[in-house]
Design a protein that fits this description.
It contains 15 helices and nine strands. With about 325 residues, it is α/β, with parallel strands linked by helices. The chain has two domains: about 200 residues, Spore Coat Polysaccharide Biosynthesis Protein SpsA, Chain A (Alpha-Beta Complex); about 110 residues, no CATH class. Strands 1, 2, 3, 4, 5, 6, 7, 8 and 9 form a nine-stranded mixed sheet that branches. It is globular.
Length: about 325
Amino acid sequence: MPNQLCICIPTFNRIDKLRKSLSYHLNLCLKYDTGLVVSDNASTDGTRDLLIQYKEQYSWFDFVSNHSNIGPDANFNRALKLGLQTEANYMWLLGDDDFIESDALIEVLNRLIADMPDFLFVNTKNQVYERLPSSFSSHSDLLRDLAWHSTFMSSLIFSKNAADFGIEPNESSPNFSHVFGIFNYLSTLNSIRISWIQKPSVTTMRLDSSLPSWFPHILDIFVSNWVKTINGLPSIYSLEDKKIAIRSLWRKSKILNYKTIIFLIFRDDIKFLDFLQRKAELYLVIGKLRFYSLFIAFMMPKYLSKRIARIALNRYVKRRAIESRSFNAVEHIK
């Protein structure tokens, strides 16, 4: 099946989400001559049987089932490598709960042909939304503007050379091997061609109101590991570039706000001593003023933190429920 683009989906034990994704994307791929592959990270919920069923229906579709769980980062890389085995010139690394807008796929294919970029980044509807220029040719501007956006895997479309370079897990970038891999690869190029599509192209599907699995580990992931990932990038990116990229986590996501910290304290997922020991990293991510202002959260009476945590959780549940209903109302992904 000739194609310009291959959609590469890594998955693990999320058969319900994967079923919806494949039901939608395989038909979309047929319409636009786009490939699709799945890397199953040794799921135990019947995912392999599901993939076999789709393979019987779509002969051009391909998948691999790992003999053991190799970790999420290595599975991302394996999905890309599987995509390289197709005839595609570009690989779109897509989460198993993310959906590509049909009209957006047309624009993506047209931009790939017209621009021939090293990477193409797309905007998202309900994750990391940005307003950025349509192209980048500066390493400095790229890191400053797109470091945080690149944490959202499904916004990334790799050229064949970039996918071949890979995003192997390494000690410099726990949780963010794809971010490190992208900017490490681009550092090897004297000149870069990066394209950006402003119109939101991907939407994340919400099936339930459960908290993300990473939520209790926010300080580990979005403070310590984020700082380690960006600071570990090659010296082509200046210290000032890295400083701005690190701070972009807070500036763009607001993930370490008062409600989040209070909620984590109430759940006993964060201790004051742990927070204090990360002072230097937190200075980089949120700044000194906000670091000290968050002390208020730790001094809050238990009854008040419980009330705030309950309000925050209720709002989160309602928002997820609304999103879930909006997706379930769409006939083609039922």
